[in-house]
Structure formats: structure tokens, C-alpha cells
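Data card: per-record layout.
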Amino acid sequence: MSNFIGIRHEDKYPLETRVPLTPKHVEWLVNHKKLDIVVQSCDKRIFKDEEYVNAGAKVADNLKECSVIFGVKEIPIEVFEPEKTYVFFSHVIKGQPYNMPMLRRMMEKKCNLIDYEKIVDEQGKRLIFFGKYAGFAGMINTLWALGLRLKEQGYTTNLLKLKQAHKYHSMKEAVDDISSIGQIIAEKGISNTVRPFVIAFAGYGNVSQGAQQIAGFLPIKEISPEKLLALHNRKMLPDNIVYKVVFHEEDLYEHVDGRPFDLHEYYTHPENFRSKFEKYLPFINVLINCVYWDHRYPRLVTKDYLEKAFKKGNLRLTVVGDISCDVEGSIECTLKPTTIDDPIFVYNPESRTIKMGCEGPGLQVMSVDILPAELPRDSSTGFGDVLVNFVKAIADADFSDNFEDLDLPKPIKKGLILHRGELTPDYQYLSEYLFK
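The structure for this 436-residue chain is written out next.
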């Protein structure tokens, strides 16, 4: 048991400035939960060292005196200390090969690992996440990229007023800009060249909800996937509407043998399903991808489809905001994750190559893989507002107890991947990935 809590600096990405707990949260933990908090000094964090000092924390170059350490992203393997508890996004639950050395090192050091991604309620719903902020930033970036791409195609629009998400001081500033553009669209309409203008959202979870919230500051009218197919046959359409279509699993996939779609079967046996999304693609201008994907699942947009549509000259799809960002995954033309300082590329369907920026023939893709880091102040605050409620319980837990006897809130215990260096029961499956 320890009352010394550490907050480490982030070192995976140069532009990662988020924190798991803000000075406001630290002040509450110090004053109301009587915890001693040590913050690792950092000159790039969105909240300054002085703010943490004023909140009652100690700032130090290292976290040697802390037995529980909170971070955001993965931690370098040389940093782990024996028998300490680490709480961060480990990105190991799919057996990701690039993080197996980190997991092995934690096992060697007999560490405890709690992963935010697996802190869930009884229904399996995640409780602590940045996902909605990924949606916020992803939608802002996609609209920004759309303005650049349309200009490259010869159409100057008010979207050029937008900036990339991280260049705004707060989300409110971005919302103000998008709202003003929405007002102009409502009053003056949309160019015939892109009308009807359709934004499609693949997925409906936290990420999608965040993206939809941002899109909602445009003059949006939501329609069903079925109505999307009929939309382009209508002769008279309003010129001041942006159409929104949200796709659920049953809209995206179908059973290979023609049986009715069954959601449970889809998630337990995805190999029995194929995508039917291609029939909608000719009618979509912007696609926001927010679906979960791994190699077992069908793809939504394939390289073959894009090549065929591009050669026929009927590729209406202008920009993909691939917030899910699975390389060559559900959006097969996402050939790489992009960075905050180099966020977009154009995919050429004929050569199947990419060119960074917004120039060249093909499809614009935005695939930044740490999107919440573009809104670090807002996202850190929202994340910490939930995490702060569990910190005291984690600090007070006696990790020397047997796993069955550990006194932890159920959601936290569900997120405990390693206990004293051993895989806990729900994560025994990871043993097969450790030495691949």
C-alpha cells in the first residue's frame, strides 16, 4: 500500500502533451483524499510544473519514491522498476508484437499493469477513455483537410478558414469557426459541384459520437443508409443542407450465405460476413471511420474498389477521416498512421502509393493516430474527471495479496492485466503472443 502517486511525463511522441490527471484533479486528491503526489518534471506538458506545485504536488525529475505511477501512452522498457504498479494505455490486448518486449519486461520486473482500455463496467462498457476527443479532433481535422483538398481540385470554400485541431487553444475556438462556416452554408448554400454533400459515419460509439457532435455545428440533416441510396435520384434538393448518415453493423455487413444479419454472430464469427458498404460509397463525399477492426473482420473500403472507381472517373469520395487508423485495415488505403505535424496524405488508387500533403490524384486521407493529443487541455480534463474517482482505491490496494483477494473496484480489477508480473485470468491468452 502507498499514498505516493506518480504522474510521469510522456515521451513516446514529441507532440504528446496530455496528462492522466490535471492540476485540478491533483488538488482534489491532495486535499480530500490526503494523497502525496509526485509529478515528473516536463517542459512540454500542457499543464506546467508550477500549476502542479500550486495544486499541492511535488515536482521531481524521477518517480523513485512512487509505487503507483500513472501515464498516458506506452512506457520505455528501461523505465520499469520492480514490483511497481503502472496505469497507462499499454496496447497489448491484441497481442501487438511491437509491445510484447515491454510486456515481457514488466513480467520480469514483477510489475502490476492496469490498462485504461480494459477498465469496464459489468456490461463491458469502457469507463475511462479519450475516444470522444479523438472524434472531436478527427472531425475538425477532416473538415480542415476537406477545405485543402477542394482547393486543390479548384473549389475555394469557407472551410479554408479552419485550422488543424492542435492549432486551436481550445475546442471552443474550433467550434466557433465551424459554427460560422455552418451559418454561411445555411444562408448561401453549397456549390453544385459537391451537392448533395454527404458525410458518412462508420460506427456509433464514443469516437463517432464525438465526431458527430462537431459535425452538428453544420446545417445537418440525418438520413438513413436506405434513403442515401435514393437521395441522388431526387431532382430537387435543398442547397443548404449537409446530409449525415450513420452506419451500424447491419448496414455495413451481410452474411455470406444470405441469412439475416445477427449482431452476436458477427462479433463471435466475423469470418461468416462480408462488407456491403461498397454500394453506398458512390454517394458519399466524406467518410469518418470509427469502427473497431482486426484481421478477422471484413474491410469497408478496399484498394480494389478504389482503383476500379478511380479508373471509371466516378470516385465521389473526397476525404477519409480514418480515426480508427488501422494500417491497411477497415480502410485498406490507410497505408500508415500519420503524425500531428504531418497529418494527411493523398492515396493514388492506380499506383497504390501515397504522397504526403493534399496534392496529387486520388483520395485524401487523415490518419493521425493520437488525435486526442491535438486537444490536450480538453481531453486531459475529461479523462481525469473519471479517473480521479479510482485513484485512491488503486493507491490503497495491497498488491501483495493474491489476485482473488485484491481489494480493488471491479472495473479496475477487470483492467488488471499483470499482477506481480503474472498474467491475470482474463489475459492468459496473451501468453501465446509473448515470444512470437
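Known properties of this structure: The mean pLDDT is 95. The radius of gyration is 23 Å.

See the next section for split statistics.
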